Each structure stands twice: as C-alpha cells, then as structure tokens.
C-alpha cells in the first residue's frame, strides 16, 4: 500500500513540501497550529508569493473542483499521528532574539505534540534547519515519549529549496540528503523520493550530524561566495577595477564557477544570514569556534555593503546631507520572484537613506504589502515610473526582470535628474547611458 505522508508546519517549506508530496502521488495531511494558515491553504491559497505553488495546491487540495483531493489539512496532532506513515517536520527555526543561536522551540513543541500519539510504526523526518546535534537529542526524546517505542523512529532530511524556485527545487532536487540510523528509515525515504531518484537526483545517505551539517555548510559556502565577490568589489573600488568583469573572468574556471558571484548590496532573507550566525553559535558550543571565525567576516563584509550603497547615494547627490533630496528605490524584497522582505538589503538601504532625511519612494513588483508593514514610514508608489517621478537619484536594489525591461528614456523624462545606482550589477550600463543617464554600479567605479 502507498505510504501516507504528513507535513507538520505549513509555512514556506511545509506548504511547498506538502503540495509536492501530493504531486508525487501520495495522500498527504498537512498540520499547522495556526488555524488561519490552515483555512487559507484549504481554499488553495498561499500567504506568500511563490511561482507555481498556488497552481500546485489547486491541483491537489481536497474540496477544490477538479483537484486530486490527495492533500488535506488539520490542526489536530492525534489525526496526523493516526494518518501518517512518514511525518515531515517543517517548522521554522528563527534566530533567537538578541542572540546568534537559532530558536528550536517550534521543532521541540511539534515533536512534543506528536510523540505521545505515535502508537504504531512511524518515521518522523526532520527537514528544518537545526544546529548539529539536534537530531540526536530529538531521537532520544522520541524513543522516550512515543508509545510505539522502537517502532517510532527519527531521520534527518535537510531542505535546500530556494525562494522563487521552491516548487521546482522540491520536485526536482539537485540532491537528496538523508541522515538515518536504520535500513528501514532509508528504505522508507527511498520510497518517498522514488520519482526524483528515478529522474537522477543523487541520494546521499549519512549519519545524523553530517545530514544536519550539510545544510549549514552549503549555506555558509553560498554566503562566502557572495561576500568574497563583494570584498573583491571593495578592492575594485579602491583600485579602479571592474568587479563584474573580474567575476566573469574567474567564473570561467569551472572549479570556481560563475554562479553566486554577483557583487552588490549582498545577501539577506530568512535563511543565509540567520543560518551562518546559528552555525557560529553552535560551533562555539562545540568548542570549534575557531573553525568558523571566518563566517564573522563573511557576515560583516555582507552587512557593510548596505552602508556602502548609502554612501554611493550620498556621493551621487553631491556629497552633502540627504535632507530634502528625493530618492527612488526600485526593489524591496531580498531577491526577485519573492515577496519576502525579511532582512532585505534593499529595504535596509531605503530605510537608512530615509532616516537620514531623504524623501524615499519605493516600488517593488510583489513586496509592497510586506514592505509597507515592516517600514510604514517610507513612501510607496504603484509603479517604477511613479517611484522615479521627480527623483534626484534612482537606486536599483532588487534585480527583478521588470526593472531590466524598463525604458530608460521614459524614466528619464519623469526623473528630476538622470542618475542611477545599480546595487545589483544587473542593469545594462550601455542602455542607460545611451538615454543620457549617469550609471554607477558597486565595484565598478569606471565601468
Ligand atoms: C538560500 C539557499 O540558496 C537555499 O539553498 C537554502 O535552502 C535557503 O537559503 P534563498 O534564501 O531563497 O535560498 O536565497 P538565495 O537565492 O540563496 O539568495 C540569497 C541572497 O543572496 C539574496 O538576497 C540574493 O540577492 C543574494 N545574492 C545571490 C547576491 O547578492 N549575489 C549572488 O550572486 C547571488
């Protein structure tokens, strides 16, 4: 008989995972402790913008006309325990207030709610990003609290999905990593992921700590790549070089690779910043803090770029105070194809310039609502053109396709001055210059 799957926590990761599991053919029951989230999902809606996710939910959520009916939702842990053979833990692990460490309370409470109901054989699979050592601890908890005893087992299966590509990354992962302690756990997970495995996704079997570390190591590496190129951008600024050319040239070496070498205002979002900090905190607890001190530098190179963008803006406005200046900001989300503004470098720069006295008007294709909620004192416009109207300088801070397709001529007529600063190195300088704009990008003082 086909496995039945439950997904505990229906945020970004969980909602996507639940829909993907239904797409793979399984009967799925999703659980969240927030009833409003469940009501939204039951209507086939998603509380965030993620390409393809709404369509996938509509295809499978029970009660929606024409759906497979394979995906249902509940708030009841007893129902989840009775239903599922495999339970995925997909709750979030945010950064603790005032600390680098990550907050495990949602993971702990999800397992505490589930375990007492596990009376028969079950595999609990953690997907959340957790400090190394957590799976060990949670396995001991499960053994003690599940009435099924040995029948209830834990596995760790980190998630690597990117916002904006969450559906694609979940259905066609570039690798599957499973930390397991038994052949049974491995067999069950091979069954869950039979389709992507058949399609060629590598399946890497490890112990618990390695599986947990793969996730934090991968994110640390990505963060390091971005901060590396941003450090090179700083040197290019000082030496009169061009970081975009430099990135292209080193990227041809396939040991280096050209991806994640776009210099600019740096990384943000709900993952990379908090994950590298939690990793440092955990290494400290383990007595291995020296091994990760470089991540402190990665973090500070990254945070510095935001301030550098503010200074470039000041220079572009003549070097004096911001007071009375009008600044247009294109982009509020931490990356394109997302409505997520968590730790967004774009919004951070917009906020800094605004707090120093400039009149800032922001436009973003999908992030307006979230940006307004987080930063209600900024000005907002309904289009790029409206944001730019009357501006003394335009800042391009999130690399949406829409911004690359703007007509510099049309924008030029609306702006008070034709000055654009590219904080993402994503616009075509020749195009803007042709329309009479002064174009300046980070790490390319002369380009
Ligand atoms: C990241 C990881 O990529 C993903 O595997 C993990 O599961 C979660 O964290 P995500 O947070 O969606 O995913 O964003 P990502 O695409 O990695 O981008 C992170 C940030 O880096 C964005 O702010 C982006 O603008 C920035 N970035 C990316 C750069 O500044 N330069 C680059 O070259 C690439």
TrEMBL record:
Keyword match GTP-binding: no
Chain sites annotated for binding NAD(+): 32, 37, 93, 129, 163, 274, 342
A GO biological-process term: UDP-glucuronate biosynthetic process
Catalytic activity: UDP-alpha-D-glucose + 2 NAD(+) + H2O = UDP-alpha-D-glucuronate + 2 NADH + 3 H(+)
SMART domains associated with the record: UDPG_MGDP_dh_C (SM00984)
Superkingdom in the source lineage: Bacteria
Molecular-function annotations in GO: NAD binding; UDP-glucose 6-dehydrogenase activity
Residues the entry annotates as binding substrate: 160-163, 215, 260-264, 268, 335
SUPFAM superfamilies the UniProt entry points to: 6-phosphogluconate dehydrogenase C-terminal domain-like, NAD(P)-binding Rossmann-fold domains, UDP-glucose/GDP-mannose dehydrogenase C-terminal domain
Family: Belongs to the UDP-glucose/GDP-mannose dehydrogenase family.
PANTHER family tied to this protein: UDP-GLUCOSE 6-DEHYDROGENASE TUAD (PTHR43750:SF3)
UniProt name for this protein: UDP-glucose 6-dehydrogenase
Biological source species: Streptomyces coelicolor (strain ATCC BAA-471 / A3(2) / M145)
């Amino acid at each position: 008989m086909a496995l039945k799957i439950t997904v505990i926590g229906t945020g970004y990761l969980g909602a996507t995972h639940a829909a993907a599991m239904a797409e793979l053919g399984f009967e799925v029951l999703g659980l969240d402790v927030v009833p409003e989230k469940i009501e939204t999902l039951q209507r086939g809606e998603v509380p965030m913008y993620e390409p393809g996710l709404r369509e996938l939910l509509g295809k499978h959520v029970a009660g929606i006309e024409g759906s497979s009916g394979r995906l249902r939702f509940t708030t009841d842990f007893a129902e989840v325990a009775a239903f599922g053979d495999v339970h995925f833990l997909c709750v979030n692990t945010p950064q603790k207030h005032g600390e680098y460490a990550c907050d495990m309370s949602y993971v702990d409470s999800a397992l505490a709610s589930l375990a007492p109901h596990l009376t028969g054989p079950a595999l609990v699979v953690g997907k959340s990003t957790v400090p190394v050592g957590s799976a060990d601890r949670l396995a001991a908890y499960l053994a003690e609290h599940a009435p099924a005893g040995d029948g209830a087992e834990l596995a760790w299966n980190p998630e690597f999905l990117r916002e904006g590509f969450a559906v694609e990354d979940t259905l066609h992962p570039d690798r599957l990593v499973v930390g397991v302690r038994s052949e049974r756990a491995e067999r069950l997970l091979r069954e869950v992921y039979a389709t992507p495995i058949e399609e060629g996704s590598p399946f890497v079997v490890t112990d618990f700590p390695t599986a947990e570390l793969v996730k934090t190591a991968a994110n640390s590496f990505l963060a390091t790549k971005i901060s590396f190129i941003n450090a090179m951008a700083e040197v290019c600024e000082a030496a009169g070089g061009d970081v975009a050319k430099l990135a292209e040239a080193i990227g041809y070496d396939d040991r280096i690779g050209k991806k994640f070498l776009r210099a600019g205002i740096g990384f943000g979002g709900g993952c990379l910043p908090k994950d590298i900090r939690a990793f440092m905190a955990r290494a400290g607890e383990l007595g291995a803090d020296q091994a990760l001190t470089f991540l402190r530098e990665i973090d500070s190179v990254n945070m510095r770029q935001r301030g550098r963008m503010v200074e470039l803006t000041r220079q572009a406005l003549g070097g004096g105070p911001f007071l009375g200046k009008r600044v247009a900001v294109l982009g509020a989300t931490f990356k394109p194809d997302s409505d997520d503004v968590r730790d967004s470098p774009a919004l951070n720069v917009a906020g800094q310039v605004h707090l120093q006295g400039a009149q800032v008007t922001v436009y973003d294709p999908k992030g307006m609502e979230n940006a307004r909620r987080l930063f209600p004192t900024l000005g907002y416009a309904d289009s790029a053109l409206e944001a730019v109207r009357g501006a003394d300088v335009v800042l391009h801070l999130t690399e949406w396709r829409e911004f690359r397709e703007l007509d510099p001529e049309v924008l030029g007529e609306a702006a008070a001055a034709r000055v654009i600063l590219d904080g993402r190195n994503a616009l075509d300088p020749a195009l803007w210059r042709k329309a009479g704009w002064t174009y300046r990008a980070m790490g390319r003082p002369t380009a």
